[in-house]
Fold this sequence. Notes:
The structure holds 3 protein chains of 3 kinds. Chain A contains 1 helix and 30 strands. Chain A has one helix at about 280-285, and strands at about 5-10, 15-20, 30-35, 40-50, 60-65, 70-80, 80-85, 90-95, 105-110, 115, 120, 125-130, 135-140, 145, 155, 165-170, 175-180, 185-190, 200, 210-215, 220-225, 230-235, 245-250, 255-260, 265-270, 275-280, 310, 320-325, 330-335, 335-340. In chain A, the strands form 8 sheets. In chain A, strands 1-30-29-28 form a 4-stranded antiparallel beta sheet, with no helix packed on it. A 4-stranded antiparallel beta sheet of chain A has the order 2-3-4-5, with no helix packed on it. Chain A has a 4-stranded antiparallel beta sheet with strand order 6-7-8-9, with no helix packed on it. The longest helix of chain A is centred in the last third of the chain and has 6 residues, at about 280-285. Chain B has a single domain, classed as 7 Propeller (Methylamine Dehydrogenase, Chain H), CATH 2.130.10.10. Helix content of chain B is about 5%, strand content about 45%. Chain B has 2 helices and 29 strands. In chain B, the strands form 8 sheets. Chain B has a 4-stranded antiparallel beta sheet with strand order 2-3-4-5, with no helix packed on it. Chain C has a 3-stranded antiparallel beta sheet with strand order 3-4-5, with no helix packed on it. Chain C has a two-stranded parallel ribbon with strand order 1-6. By secondary structure, chain C is mainly alpha-helical. Chain C is elongated, with a radius of gyration of 41 Å. Among the domains of chain C are: about 1-70, no CATH class; about 175-350, no CATH class; about 450-545; about 560-650. In chain C, about 60% of the residues lie in helices and about 5% in strands. In chain C, helix 19 runs parallel beside helix 21 and helix 22 runs antiparallel to helix 23 (about 505-520). The chains are: A mainly beta, B mainly beta, C mainly alpha. Chains in contact: A-B, A-C, B-C. Strand 1 (about 10-15) of chain B pairs antiparallel with strand 5 (about 65-70) of chain C, so a sheet runs across the interface. Chain C: InterPro entries: Nucleoporin_Nup85 (IPR011502). Chain C: GO terms for molecular function: structural constituent of nuclear pore.
Amino acid sequence: MPLDVQGTFVSQKINKIRWIAEDYVETKCFFTGSWDDDVNSVKVWTLESPHEEEEIEYPRQLSEYPVEGDVTQIKFTEKNKIAVSLSNGDVKVLEVSVYDKQSPLREIFHWKKMHNYGEQKCSCTSLDTLEGDIATIGEDGNVHILSGRRGEIMRTISGADSCSLHSICFIKHSEVITGNLRGHMKIWDLRSTENKPAASFLLAGDELAATCIINHPTQPHIVLAGSESGSLAVWDLRMNTFPTSLVNAHTAGVSEMQFHPENPHMLLTCSVSGELWDWNMEAMTKSSKDQNNQVTWMPLEDKKSMMVNSVIPPLSKAINTLHCDKGRILCGADNEAIYLVKNFKY
Amino acid sequence: MGELTATNLFESQTIFADHKDLIHDVAYDFYGERMATCSSDQYVKVWDSDGNGGWRLTASWKAHHGSVWKVTWAHPEFGQVIATCSFDRTAAIWEEVGDTASSGSEKGLRTWLKRSNLVDSRTSVTDVKFGPKHLGLLLVTCSADGIIRIYEAPDVMNLAQWTLQHEIPTKVSISCLSWNPSLSRVTHPPMLAVGSDEPNTTNAAATVQSDKATACNGKVFIYEYSETSRRWTRTDCLASVQEPVNDLAFAPNLGRSFHLLAVATKDVRIIKLEPIAESSGANNGAMVRFKVEVVAAFEEHYSCVWRVGWNVTGTLLASSGDDCCVRLWKMQYLNQWKCVAVFKNEPATGDSPPLCRPSTTYTRLAAMANPAHMPFH
Amino acid sequence: MNTSNFGLEPLRGKASAPAKTFILPDKCVSKHFGCAWGQGNKFTIYPRSQTVNKSTPKALDNRLFNVRQDVLLFTPILRKLVNESNGTFLSLQKAAEASKTNDNQVEFLKLSRQFRSIIRVCTEGLQEAASKEEDGLAKNSLQSYITIFYSIECIWHLCEILFIDNIPGDIVLPYLLEWVRFHFPCHEQTAAGLLEACERGSEENAEYWDTVVGMVVQGRVDVARALLKLHSAGESNEFKLVDNSLRSMPVYSVYGGISTGEFTISWKHWQAECRSKLSSRVLASQPNLELIMRIIIGDYTAFESIRSKYSSWFDILGGWVLFTAPWSRRHELGAAAAACAGMAPAPRSHLDDMVRALLEGDLHQVIHEVQQISDNGWFATHLTDILYHCGKLKVLDKHQTNVTSRLRDSLILEYGSLLMEHKSLWSVGLSYLASCPPEGPRRAELLLERMPVETEAKAMRVIAEAKKHGLTSVVSSVSRCVCARAQAGGRLGGALCWAARALVAGAARAARACLTQYAARAALPAQDLLLTAGSAMLLSDTLLFLGKYCDFHRLYKSREFKKAGQLLVSLITSKIAPDYFWETLLLDTLPLLESDEPVFTSNDTYEIMLCLELRSSSLEGEKADLMRLALARNLARTSLAEGDGTDEGGQ
């Protein structure tokens, strides 16, 4: 079947979009988080065909959970629980009912002003989750590790950065990597009581923000970071310091990246320049398995050899988020629309 | 299909200002998120938008020993800074400090410190304005005795130190002033317009005429700064404005070759000033700096006009006059100006109930059937 | 090509509507007002006095009135239209760019249809919302939006037919009929119902004859004939005569192989035949059939008699053209419009005026009328833009100067500026302003730098958008303001970082704040930043100094005293340190002077001594004495050691 792209205008800028995993059936529902509006919210949607016989599915809103500030990140802590970071500094854990997705989201935990400048507001810029733990970062340069199960603060690295932090990723249970406004990356050993990074390096010479970080699903020592300039950097943490590869990719900031859950060789990226690309990373990840022989690494500089494809024609506004489930990709954009890509080959 | 033509609907909210005397000026900050008010009660108040359409009082202090005439915000690049001027012959510079430990901070009250007091004037200081930010941190004041003073903070970190750079006597009472906001320093030197509220007695006219520099009895003067002579000089006097001037304002330039100046006098005027190239400007030995043209004169207020103001892009002009009306003027695409809305007060018949909250929510304004508007057949 | 003069007054001698007067709420006693502008079109009206009243007025007015425009397009359901049409608008600008080199009419038509489908989707959305809405007031406003967008689509469609579509032979009739059928689908359901039932004696239905006549007027001759056959007297001679007349009506087709001239002759012949049948009075017993015959011969009185059955004259316009001048070209519809509009003394609606002006080809008047629609300029902007790009709009002012592009630009600027006021729609507004140089980008600069940026994410997005459109002044202005805010909040790392982004002297300010803070509190802020900063350091001397100084701290902490010492001496001797920092800098030498292993050479020591004396004002007496002592001691031990070792010591 040919690739099918369908946009739905939803009257709010979508900053985060997430499929809600299903056990035995195809995913049908998803979360969105909005930003840059007078009132923002987390919504639950379902895909529906308005007429039985029709193939086309449209998103229909099931519930709305208004929040104060922008939704800056949504990550799952459990199958039906999400951790949500907000630009007013709050962090919440919300639960969607497994049986009735139409019922309102339930607030499990609420950390008020987790990030702050004293009395003044400070944005909680992002978070990452791993096995129920939540790592949050903020413009205040602090890192907090929260328990998504017990609702307590397990560890705080205050003053982790003198600048604002913009991206975070769990490398393993005891280790996170953060990226700041200048693309300064720091690795933190959460077992250490010292507020000092275990390692640090720069994303690129242009000193622009690290907008997102992910690691490879099967080779967790391989870390990728997207930059505000649109470039993409790859590190092998077994050989830290400079990025092994830095490639000029999008024409404006990389907003989100995801390895395809079914195919670890495939990377999806979206950008502020309105692009949604898929990358075939096979060459890179394969050769990197050879630990001792550095020269066999495929240079990332050449975009073409990476097999980059545009999944959808570029939008005139930023694509802020993507989430992929098998052959279907959801995107949320600044033109107040959700895009559903179907029949995507992976 | 009558609904098709209901254009220009407005809604309004009411804010209870709680000044103990008449309000003289209201000024918004650069973002339109904060509002400062000043009054004859000698107080200045600062209001912050709560993000949901409401306004919250965050500071209120006695700023002067006389009526406070004007309040104005500095560019946010210089911090949270306002300047005030008063009947007490001073102008003052205030800075908000992020002191969260002070009393009242838990109630959301902020502290403003007086950073400097400008005491050079011997008469009431009638207007104060910060200069365009590309010129640095400049402040201009004018006073009833007709002296324009330009101050500069040489170190933008130190708001306590202001040096009086220029003192320009005008010999007439000055009521208002406006900086030309043009960003192009190359084509437009720093420029100020000042307006005089000197009444038109024969005596006063004679004084002005005796001023050799300008054989003109207009009430609006243009001053420009010359980089070479490092002086401000009067480069024009607008002969077309003969009546006392209450307010004036330059429109944002938008890259145009000419400037638009709105003047509140016995009517609302929009005056176009087009700089003449140096070479062609020499006329009988005297330099003519501008081609001056009155592009609009609205007499709809039928009375004295007190205030004029432009919106951010200079596409709408608001004027208020003695006729209890605020009018909005808009430029049509062929540069004609047209009144697009009138806001009128219905005189009170009795005491209206006091507001229980500092601000109300927005409600649609009722439109009045215009008696001049005949039903359409 | 449409040409019209534009003076101050709109055309047709209609005086421009006087400005509306609004009453301020909460009656207040004051007579005098002041006004102050806020963001966008928001402003405040406040009661004020001009003179100082010594006595406090009896009643004091202390209320401020914040006034703003109530913008229809900001309602969530219409934001979909705003966003979706923005995409089409941008495609249109690209197509217009491409059409400079080759003809792009097909693309324009495609985009025009896209606009119409967007309007239709919007109308459907509104209808669905209205059907679900339970609140009466909200339902009413939704209904009025439906009316607005329904009319917009109707006008747009007609515009597309008359000015954008490529019509073979310019014969407009089939398109006109299609327009009428689409927008005024009168009797369609009844006709379908009757045909489906297919029962003889359908005239029992009260609407039977109205439906038959309606089908004839809509040019659906086949349907009319099929309906006539369902009449119980369908087989009678009278019916057969009418059926025959309808069947034999010549239909023009560009591809039919005959010229318009030939067609006109045969059509006139056919109509003459019909006329003679009618005058033979064979139909006298069947007034309804007679009416049909009178219609198809284009009898004005016949049309006049049925006009009252329709809500508007548009319903019969297609029929009128069909039966009076089927060969009409696009620009020849004015007379037909006048004839149809004149048939009933119904009050003229706004839609009437727009359709009339369109059919008369007076696009300028159309745009003038369209501007009166309360859709906040959405329609006027997009319609004018597409007509302008199609080359179908030509507006002259009273001096015969072509002002078309000015009209188009002013509408786009207005619409773009309006959207810039909205918290979320600003990026849409920006793309309109950016497409309209030179004034658009200037307006965008003013509005963009005034956009409140509560978070860095928003600041970064504003900057990205500004960069995309080449608005560099906004990039630095926003960065400077974020820098100033960070500095005011004591966040010096953030301040330095944003200063570097602003690429301005602001960096020096922030660097200075760092040094001052260190001099006062002894903890150097933002070390992680300073040690990794690259070219940003070259922005200012102070920043460069700060970076080097920070490096000194790093070396010192990692106990590389020799290197640290060298760096410190170079910082002292280069004399780039700001005045207020000399004390700190000189005192920093103390621990190195006192270290077990000598760190400074005798030459270094001389240099430090020299600086100490030159800068005696920076250091208090006691501290200076302490320094002198340490320097002397160090000089003693180093001279000794250097003298012992190499020849260099002797120099």
